[in-house]
Request: fold
Amino acid sequence: MRLITIPIIILIIFILFALFTPVLLLEGIENILPGDVKQNTAEIRQNAANLMIDISSLLGRFDTCVDLYTYLIERFPDSAEFYGKKALYLHKLGRLDEAVTALDGAIVRDPENIEYLLRKARLTKALYRNDESNQTYQQIDQITPKTALNYAYSGDAALDRSKYIQAFDRYTKSLALDPSNSLIWEKRGDVIFALLTIPTAGLDADEELRNKDLYTEGIKSYENAVRLKPDRIADITQKMSKRSDLFVPKSIAELESRYTRYRYLG
Reply:
């Protein structure tokens, strides 16, 4: 019995260390490994740290997740991903200034990652660092997205600043690359109906867009969103019910004509 009990006790101690002091556990393992073994097992320890982060996150131990990402950054300082994920947990903990610092580390290593830039722009705006936020949004505008996801993030950045035409363009291009994203279909529909209900939203539209039947495009966007994610049907149906073709114009040109006629635009 004693021979069986000892390994069980060791296993329990190991699990407790992994749950409550995972960084100490990883550092302790490093300290007892010979140099060549330590180097050859770096990937194993990285995977172990990632597993511990997943467990800590499920348990709501976000401070432990931050400590583990700090551990990984010290050993893999060129990884933008570790800085970006550390920022996520710092944000969850309400440590916004530190989250921005972590995002700066990610951006230095991956300067055209629009997700990192968008998160920094929003965080600095929340911290009332408006000049820094505006500069970060401008950085996003200067990047040409290369993936569906980055087009979507660029669309979100435009929407944050009520740049509806730019948001419409970015969401449309995102869906051309990946038409399976229900959330982007829904956002595209929202932007379209903003263009058809906010008199000044489409003032910078070119002639082709001004006369385009956006109403039909908007309805199709919502229908695609529901098709891809049926559990959104109630919310999207409610949106569509408020946007009857009896009241909403078909195009930006028609909207502007209505308001010009009644001298709302001048």
Summary: DSSP finds 16 helices and no strands in the chain.
